[in-house]
Specification:
Layout: H1 3-12, H2 20-23, E1 32-37, H3 45-58, E2 63-67, H4 75-78, H5 87-91, H6 97-100, E3 102-104, E4 107-110, H7 117-121, H8 126-137, E5 143-147, H9 154-162, E6 165-170, H10 174-191, E7 195-203, H11 206-224, E8 227-235, H12 241-248, H13 255-271, H14 286-290
Parallel strand pairs: 1-5, 1-6, 2-4, 2-5, 6-7, 7-8
Antiparallel strand pairs: 3-4
The protein binds adenosine-5'-triphosphate and magnesium ion.
Length: about 290
């Protein structure tokens, strides 16, 4: 049996949570796999995934971002790239991974589809397709990031469990806090995941940030016995919805961008990525010329 199918099978044949050590195959590879997730919709997952991929690529890491929102893909649109539903051809076996990939220097993006009838009608399991793509190509990358869709369905949970790290994106909104807890709970009880990273987006004061961090991390620890690593926060910015992507993904090195870079480098240092994080920021790679 293919090793990915074997890995997936292990969850459907037993209700017992599988120990993290059994899931980890990362030690066999240099690639670090991170899912950007959170349960609730509209909390900033795609924006954060894109910004992170961009920073990592500019810092010299070979980075692949996979859009896992199979039929409501937002990554290409946020970068101002055309939508072509090419991913359909991966499903039908007519195109290869390479043929569907958008490449800008160290930044590679695999977009998904937008309103594709083929995807809607496909009987294939999207999580299995993504995991097969990852296992075939992870040796080509330092980081693989998954931009997860909203929700806590089986496919999202499987993709989250497969990754080495999960970034739980949460906003101070009560429903976002509740949804992220539900996601963490399912990951813990069903997949034995006992460690996650927390990123608070759109907070408006330090007090609000601290409250979200404390509420979630204590509840997760007390009720699930799971650990929450605090990645940090991103303040709510006062720009129009139309202007947000341009602002958030811009090359400007304003305080906001510097804070995000700091948050990210804190993470790469902690997870001990395969390369040393450049201290002075080698931010002049091809990406800048090709996108924006
Ligand atoms: N820090 C922020 N400050 C202000 N607005 C923000 C911030 N982060 C995100 N937004 C707003 O939230 C919108 C939704 O962001 P995004 O598409 O990244 O969320 P998402 O979690 O990926 O959504 P979905 O669940 O639909 O995939 C952005 O287009 C932007 O308008
Ligand atoms: Mg999204």
């Amino acid at each position: 049996m293919h090793k990915t199918s074997e890995w997936l099978q292990s969850f459907s044949t037993s209700n017992n949570p599988i120990q993290r050590s059994e899931l980890r195959r990362a030690s066999d590879f240099a690639c670090t796999k991170v899912s950007i997730t959170g349960g609730k919709g509209g909390v900033g997952k795609t924006s954060i995934a894109l910004r992170t991929a961009k920073e990592l690529a500019l810092a010299g890491f070979r980075t692949l971002l996979i859009d896992c929102d199979s039929n409501l893909s937002n990554t290409a649109i946020k970068l101002g790239l055309p939508l072509d539903n090419k991913f359909e051809k991966i499903l039908s076996g007519e195109a290869s991974f390479q043929e569907c990939l958008i490449q800008r220097g160290n930044f590679h993006l695999l977009p998904a589809c937008n309103g594709s009838v083929e995807v809607f009608e496909s009987k294939l399991n999207f999580d299995e397709i993504i995991i097969d793509i990852i296992s075939s190509h992870e040796h080509e990358y330092d980081y693989i990031l998954l931009d997860c869709p909203a929700g806590a369905g089986r496919e999202v949970l499987t993709l989250n469990a497969y990754c080495d790290h999960r970034w739980i994106v949460v906003t101070p909104d009560k429903s976002s806090i509740t949804d992220s807890y539900s996601l963490v709970k399912l990951l813990s009880t069903r997949f034995g995941i006992k460690e996650n990273h927390l990123l608070v987006n759109m907070y408006q004061s330090e007090k609000q940030f601290q409250k979200v961090v404390l509420t979630l991390s204590e509840t997760i620890e007390n009720f699930l016995g799971a650990r929450t690593h605090i990645l940090g926060g991103i303040q709510k910015v006062d720009v129009s919805a139309e202007g947000f992507d341009t602002f958030f993904l811009s090359e400007n090195k304003n305080e906001f961008q510097r804070n995000f870079a700091k948050l990210l480098y804190g993470f790469t240092e902690k997870v001990g990525g395969p390369l040393n994080v450049p201290k002075n920021g080698i931010h002049q790679l091809a990406y800048e010329q090709d996108v924006h």
